[in-house]
Amino acid sequence: MQKGQFGVLILLTAILFGALIRFAAPLNAQGPVNDGGLFLQMTRDLQEDRFALPDYTTYNNADIPFAYPPLGFYLVGLIQSLMGIPLLVLFTYLPALFSTLAIPAFYFLACELTDDRLKASVATLFYAVIPKSFDWFIMGGGVTRAPAIALAFLALAFVHRLFVTRNARYIVHVSVLSAMLVLMHPEIAYHTAFSVLIFAVFFLRGRNGMFHVLIAAVAILLLTSPWWFTVLQRHGIETFQTVLAAHPRSFASQFLFRIQFNLAGEILLTVVGVFALLGLIGDIRQRKFFLVVWVALGGLVVSITGFVLLAVKGFESALKGLGDAAPFESDFSSKTSRLTLLGLSAYLLMAGFIASSFYGYEFRLLNGERAAMNWIQENTDPSAKFILLTGGTSLIDPLSEWFPVLAERVSLATVQGHEWTPQQNLPVSAGKYAQLQSCLNQDVACIESWDYDYVYIRRISPQREGNVEPHPSILEAALRASTEYEIVFENDEAVIYRSLHQ
Fold first, then answer.
1. Residue 298: other Cβ atoms inside 10 A
2. Boundary-marking domain end, from 359, 383, 405
3. Is 192 within 8 Å of 159 (Cβ atoms)?
4. Statement to judge: residues 385 and 355 lie in one domain
5. For residue 253, what pLDDT is reported?
6. What is the strand order of the sheet 454-458 is part of?
7. Within this chain, do residues 399 and 260 fall inside the same structural domain, yes or no?
8. pLDDT by residue (tens digit) across 287-335?
9. How many domains does the chain have?
C-alpha cells in the first residue's frame, strides 16, 4: 500500500464506523431519541407561516417566543417540503446523518492542527467512535446540534488558518461559517467562542491579525442580524437575558468532571482517555501547552478535538513502547502497529455501538405510550390540561417533551422552551417539574395545587439494555382508590385518570 493510502483507508473506516454507531440509537428507539419535540413543532410552525418567522411557537400553548436561532428549522423544513418525508421520520434519522457528516469536518480541523493526514485520520477514527462525539447529537434535537458541531469544526479550522497565515481571504470563510453556527445552535456557538479565544492567545499575532478579527466579528453580527434584530424588536432584550441564565454553569462541577479525564464519555474501558492522559503528560514535558489549555479551559463540546489529538499522541507513545520507533512516519508499516490499531478499532467500534444502543433503548417512547397519546388526541377536549408523572428528569424525559406534539394537548410541567420565557425561566420550570415528579411517592394531596384535567402516569421505565421495568408508585394506588378520579385509559405502559372534582 502506497504512502498516504493507509490514511485514506483509516478515514473511510472512521466514517463507516461512525455511521453504524450513530444509526444504532434511532433504529433501536424506533423513533426520535429523547428530545426534539419542541424543534419539530417550531419547524411545523415555520412551514405553516410559509417560512416567515412566527412571533411565537404553538408548542404546548406556552407563549414561547420564536427566538431560537432558526437555521436548523429552515433546513429540516425545506427537506420535508421538497421530499415529502414526515417530520417525525426526519427527526428520527437526520440527527444521525448530520452527526456522521460532522466526522469529515472533524478530519478537516485535525488536518489543519496537525499538518499530518495520517495522524488526522487516526484522530478522526477515535472521534467517530467515542460517545461524546454523538450522544446528544443523535437525539431528536440533533437536527440543530449535529450541523452546528460540523460548522464549529470548520469555523475553527479557518480561524486557525486566518491566525497563522494572516491571509485576509479567510475572513470570508470564518465569517460565513461562524454566522451559520450562531444561527444553528447558540450553546455550541458559545463553546466555540471560548475556543477562538484560546486560539487567539496561541496563534494570533500582529495588528493585521487583530484587524482581521474585528472585521470578522462585524461581519458575523451583520450576517446574523436578521434573526437577533427581529427577536429584539418583538420580544426585547429580556429574552436573550433569560436564555443566558437558563443553564447556570458551576465551576466546581466542571472542574470535577474534567479531572476525571473521561471527556470522551467512554462507558467501558476508558481507552481513549488513557491515551489522552499519556499525550497530556508528554505535551507538558515538552512544554507544548496549546492542547493542554484547550482541553482545560475550552468549551467541552468543541474542545473534545484537543482531547482526541492528545489521545493520538498518547497512542503514538504506546506504539513506540511496543517497539515501533516511528509508527506514523512509517505509515504503520510494522505488523505490531497495524495489529494494535486493528484490535483497538474493533474494540472501539463495539464500545461505541453499545453506547449508542444504550441511548436508543433508554430514551425512547414505547408503542403503548404512543397509543395512549393517540387516544388522548382523539378522545379529550383540545383545551384539556395534563400533568405527566414519569419519574424522569427535566431535560431527559422523552414523554414530557413529545407529549405536546403527539397528543396535541398541554403538559403543565414540560420544561422545553422555557429557556426563552422571562415570565417563567428554565430553572423555575425545572424546579416545578422536579416537585411534580416527587409526587409519585406521595398521596393525592401532593398534586392538587396544579390546575389540571387529567393525570398521566408512566407505569414503566425503559432500561438501556433494552428491557422495560415496571414503575409502581404510591400516587397511582392513591388515585385508583380515590372517588374523585376515574380511569379513562389504561395499558401496560400508561394509565390516565380524569379528575372529577374540577
1. 25
2. 359
3. no
4. no
5. 67
6. 410-411, 385-389, 454-458, 494-499, 485-490
7. no
8. 999 999 999 888 778 889 999 999 999 999 999 998 888 888 888 888 8
9. 2
Q: Which residues share a beta bridge with 388? A: 456
Residues 311 and 440 in one domain: no
Average pLDDT across the chain, whole number: 93
Of 327, 342, 359, which one is at a domain's C-terminal end?
A: 359
* Predicted structure pTM score: 0.95
Q: Which of 280, 101, 93, 73 lies closest to 185 in space, CA to CA?
A: 73
Residue (of 477, 423, 317, 490) closest to 62 by Cα position? 423
Q: Under DSSP, is residue 165 helix (H, G, I), strand (E, B) or coil?
A: helix
Average pLDDT estimate for 198-207: 94
Same domain flag for 279 and 408? no
Alpha carbon 334 to chain centroid, angstroms: 39
326 and 387 fall within a common domain: no
Closest alpha carbon to 101 in 135, 134, 72:
134
Cell 508528554 belongs to which residue? 282
Residues 324 and 371 in one domain: no
Q: Of all helices (H) and strands (E), which one includes residue 460?
A: strand 460-462
Triad 199, 203, 208: Cα angle to 5°: 110
- Look up residue 364 and give its three cell numbers: 425512547
| C-alpha dist (Å) from residue 30 to 23, 188, 372, 409 | 11, 27, 17, 23
Q: Coil, strand or helix: which one is 298?
A: coil
Q: Kindly tell me if the per-residue pLDDT of 377 is higher than 90.
A: yes
Same domain, 23 and 73: yes
What gap in Å lies between CA 312 and CA 251, rounded to an integer? 28
Residue showing cell 383540545: 382
pLDDT tens digits, residue range 204-235?
A: 998 999 999 999 999 999 999 999 999 999 99
The residues, ordered by sequence, that sit 6+ positions from 153 with a Cβ below 8 Å of its Cβ are 102, 105, 106, 108, 109, 302, 305
Q: Is the pLDDT of residue 252 over 80?
A: no
Question: 46 pLDDT band (50/70/90 cuts)?
Answer: very high
Q: Are residues 355 and 422 in the same domain?
A: no
Q: Considering Cα of 205, then 206, then 210, then 213, what sign does the dihedral take?
A: negative
What are the cell numbers at 473? 408508585
Domain of 109?
5-359
The residue written with cell numbers 461559517 in the block is 177
Please report, to the nearest 10 degrees, the dihedral formed by the alpha carbons of residues 18, 365, 91, 74 taken in order.
-140
Give the closest residue to 68 by CA, choosing from 93, 91, 46. Answer: 46
